[in-house]
């Protein structure tokens, strides 16, 4: 299947170096124009949303053109200036989606060769007891020499290294035997080397199973999963050259009992496929609820309904008049109390879920305020017992806060405090959801938000999400360091879930004493002691990456963020991270204007 336009990618090379969970990925694509006329060569790389592009170089017939990283507003100026002077310039920005796409194109003379090299970095997050490196391979054609190499270097022995079946990157599919990459994996205690070089023939076969057009070659994700042996208590602090990173993932703990409040949008826009996917997801989530947990199911459309699970009856909550002080209105209503989970309650909850229907508008604030009220009731009821129940709000909506008021997120945040404070996990469903509002709401309320794509696998996405938050092990986790330690990234975490990992990084003097992590578990307060390890590899970029991420995240949850943005910009420029506040600019050198080739255009 040679490409029709004669632009042949004769080699593609993807190299990834992971060290202490921090991955540096380099994608190289080599293109030759075999056509007799000038052709537009397009270089596209799909990268995870969490990654930062850090470098891009373009080499045309042996001449290389580097890129620079600039503040976003300055980058725009240079780009426009360059255009006016008829000097061609490329401007690449990241957009916000689950994955970002890096796109550059240029006109390539006949017989010319272009080599594109993109570098991006990311921190691998531990989810479900493993780290996952996802490499997108999408050359758009069968490539004669296609080579993927992953090197992992950790400071602890590797528990396992796996390469699951290739993924389409779109819908979650069941493991397909045919898509097994049969990669070469060599594990050597603390390091590993993985190689995947499918021949042209294998690329055709895999493209067939991935259901992509065979002529377009392999278009999917090559995934490497691994985990490390760890300290069961306060984690490991790695030290090097004045930087430290603290990995914390204790596992010898009992899960906290919890009170889960599902707040489900059943407004009319959920009608049809969305509501049936929501029901499917709830059916399987309910299978995963632990016995002795407590649950509440609230739905909201134009009204708020709290389900009495035991009798399977919906109870309408009187219209909440005063948004600023809803609890006094709510205390006058007969509201069903939360249900203690046992087999019977689960099966009743399932019939409740089957009964819900989509209609009306969406009274989001009413739904959330009622959830906070139920949490307060349950905490009061539980106050005399030794054990605290961890409250959790799972909030699913496809809409915008359209009934009532604009400042929903502020009002809800104000009501969510003290012992009753509950993390709010928001799930935006479908394209119409106000993702910005949900992100802010969750950030300010100790949770996170996720987007659920409206596709055949929506209920699988919801289940995967619930699995992540189903086992809280600790709450109020505070990392305490010496006064010698400075520029520490986020060091307070309201909740820690099984299978995850908390990471803190900072600058320190040459040595650091073992650190105690103050937290609360099932039996009350705990101090978990960490161990110290000296390293050979540098931790500086890992620190900078985490710092920039934290600053950008924090800047979204506060009103005045000028200083945060300023510091994030400084660090992004210093460490050359392309973020939402910086841009990558490719400017062709002056002498190149004399060449006819190489017109870089802005895309995307
Ligand atoms: C050159 O490009 C044109 C237009 O895409 C195509 O029809 C033609 O087959 C190409 N020639 C070669 C030699 O690839
Ligand atoms: C990193 O891992 C590779 C692959 O196993 C190994 O060859 C190399 O020696 C390791 N480097 C260090 C510094 O441990």
Automatic annotation (TrEMBL):
InterPro entries: ITIH (IPR050934), VIT (IPR013694), VWF_A (IPR002035), vWFA_dom_sf (IPR036465). Residues 259-469 form the VWFA domain. GO terms for cellular component: protein-containing complex. Residues 1-122 form the VIT domain. It comes from the Eukaryota. SMART domains: VIT, VWA. This is Uncharacterized protein. It comes from Aromia moschata.
């Amino acid at each position: 299947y040679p490409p029709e336009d004669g632009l042949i990618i004769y080699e593609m090379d993807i190299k990834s170096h992971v060290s202490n969970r921090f991955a540096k990925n380099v994608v190289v694509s080599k293109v030759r124009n075999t056509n007799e006329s000038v052709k537009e060569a397009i270089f596209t790389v799909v990268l995870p949303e969490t990654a930062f592009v850090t470098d891009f170089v373009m080499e045309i017939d042996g001449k290389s053109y580097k890129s620079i990283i600039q503040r976003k507003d300055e980058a725009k100026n240079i780009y426009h200036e360059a255009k006016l002077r008829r000097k061609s310039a490329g401007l690449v920005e990241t957009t916000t989606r689950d994955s970002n796409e890096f796109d550059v194109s240029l006109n390539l003379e006949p017989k010319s060769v272009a080599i594109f090299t993109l570098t991006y970095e990311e921190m691998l997050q531990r989810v479900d007891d493993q780290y996952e490196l996802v490499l997108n391979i999408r050359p758009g054609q069968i490539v004669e020499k296609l080579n993927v190499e992953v090197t992992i270097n950790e400071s602890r022995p590797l528990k396992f290294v796996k390469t699951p079946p290739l993924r389409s990157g779109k819908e979650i599919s069941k493991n397909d035997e045919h898509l097994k990459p049969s990669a070469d994996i060599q594990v050597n205690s603390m390091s590993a080397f993985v190689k995947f070089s499918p021949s042209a023939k294998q690329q055709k076969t895999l493209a067939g199973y991935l259901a992509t057009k065979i002529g377009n070659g392999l278009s999917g994700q090559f995934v490497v999963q691994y985990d490390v042996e760890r300290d069961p208590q306060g984690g490991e602090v790695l030290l090097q050259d004045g930087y430290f990173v603290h990995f914390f993932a204790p596992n010898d703990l009992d899960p906290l009992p919890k009170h889960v409040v599902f707040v489900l949008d059943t407004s009319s826009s959920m009608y049809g496929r969305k509501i049936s996917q929501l029901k499917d997801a709830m059916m399987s989530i309910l299978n995963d609820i632990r016995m002795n947990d407590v649950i509440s199911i609230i739905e909201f459309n134009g009204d708020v309904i709290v389900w009495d699970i035991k009798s399977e009856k919906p109870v309408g909550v009187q219209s909440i008049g005063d948004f600023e002080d809803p609890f006094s209105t709510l205390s006058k209503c007969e509201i069903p109390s939360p249900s203690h989970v046992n087999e019977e309650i689960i099966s009743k909850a399932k019939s409740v879920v089957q009964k819900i229907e989509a209609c009306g508008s969406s009274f989001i604030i009413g739904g959330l305020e009622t959830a906070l009220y139920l949490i307060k009731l349950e905490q009061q009821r539980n106050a005399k017992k030794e054990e605290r129940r961890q409250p959790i709000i799972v909030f699913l909506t496809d809409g915008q806060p359209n009934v009532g008021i604009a400042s929903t997120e502020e009002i809800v945040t104000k009501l969510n405090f003290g012992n009753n404070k509950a993390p709010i996990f928001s799930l935006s469903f479908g394209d119409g959801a106000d993702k910005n509002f949900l992100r802010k709401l969750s950030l300010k309320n100790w949770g996170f938000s996720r987007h659920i794509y409206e596709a055949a696998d929506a209920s699988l996405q919801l289940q995967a999400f619930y699995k992540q938050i189903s086992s809280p092990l600790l709450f109020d986790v505070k990392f305490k360091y010496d006064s010698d330690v400075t520029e520490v990234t986020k060091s307070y975490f309201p909740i820690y879930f099984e299978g995850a990992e908390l990471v803190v990084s900072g600058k320190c003097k040459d040595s650091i004493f073992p650190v105690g992590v103050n937290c609360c578990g099932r039996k009350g307060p705990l101090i978990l002691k960490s161990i110290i390890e000296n390293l050979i590899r540098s931790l500086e970029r890992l620190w900078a990456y985490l710092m920039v991420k934290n600053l950008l995240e924090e800047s979204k949850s506060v009103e005045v963020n000028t200083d945060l943005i300023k510091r994030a910009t400084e660090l992004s420029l210093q460490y050359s991270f392309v973020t939402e506040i910086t841009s990558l600019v490719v400017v062709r050198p002056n002498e190149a204007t004399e060449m006819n080739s190489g017109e870089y255009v802005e895309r995307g």
